[in-house]
Amino acid sequence: MNEHYKFINTPLPYAYNAMEPYIDEKTMKLHHDKHLQTYIDNLNNVLSEYPQFQNWTLEQLIMNVPSLPNEIQTAVNNNAGGVFNHQFYFSNLANPTSAQPIGMLSEAIKNNFSSYESFQNQFKTAALSVFGSGYAWLVVNATGQLSITTTQNQDTPLPLCISPVLNIDVWEHAYYLKHYNKRTDYIEDWFQIINWNNANSKYIRCFTY
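Request: output the structure for the sequence above.
Response:
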């Protein structure tokens, strides 16, 4: 994806069927090529008439929504958030992958949640608690500790000044073709394809700026 307008939908870093049997090929293709593409198209359309914001990065747009003209604040929040959230989600999938967190992130999860199993339980509870559409996140909070949070629709954690490490998309389009209405089954399958190497790198970067 381009860093600035016009934003583009870069290919997934793996094949559409790479997450089988946990996430099916058709879902991955629709999710990336249709849902994410729509957010990108909408964001580009909104910014097309506002050249003063076309050199802003995706993160700058999300962080500064209140400073944008009133008439585009909601559209930018929804669509820039949709692009960021989806890209973050896709980047943290891998198959095969480590069965457990690795590196500094592994130690941090143990320190903050007692064990990986406890983290899984708390994260699953958070993901199931999202009413309707949204995301559950593992983040580094303002005190430098790991915590779990949720966002509705396409809101992101960025305006809260917390750094995301991992997220799960619990919009129904992320799982309905394979798991139907069984969000629990989807979450349990998602735990099998977390790209812990990438998540660990994101965690380390939180402390290197």
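The chain is about 45% helix and 10% strand.
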